[in-house]
Amino acid sequence: MVDSFRFAKHTLEETDAWLAELRGGGHVAALEKVASSPQMGVRSAFSFGRSLGQIEALLVSSGIRIVRVAPRTWQKTFGIQPRRKKPNPETQTQFKKRVRALAEERFPGHIKTADLADAALLAEWCRRDARG
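Predicted structure:
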């Protein structure tokens, strides 16, 4: 699996050194297609976009190809059904628990949060399906 777990809590210098090791290796990074939502405030949306831009800049400057993928696309690969709307609506929390349970099955002992579950499955999707 792609070494996505190393990104989590490192300094910019440590991340840069890690990316330097990857330069020229034909690596691919998958980024989920995202957008700001109406629930976000202006400041939150701006911060979110800036963070995404910084990640993209680090990857591009390191020569790592970026693949953007819709959440539904990578989730479908793992058989994750969309959030139920009717007849018994499923909350976002319930949906995230389903995704996390699948990630914990695939990566026992590595999944500490729902966000890490998404990241691990997205990295696995990239490893399997986005190399071309």
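Summary: The chain has one domain: 4-129.
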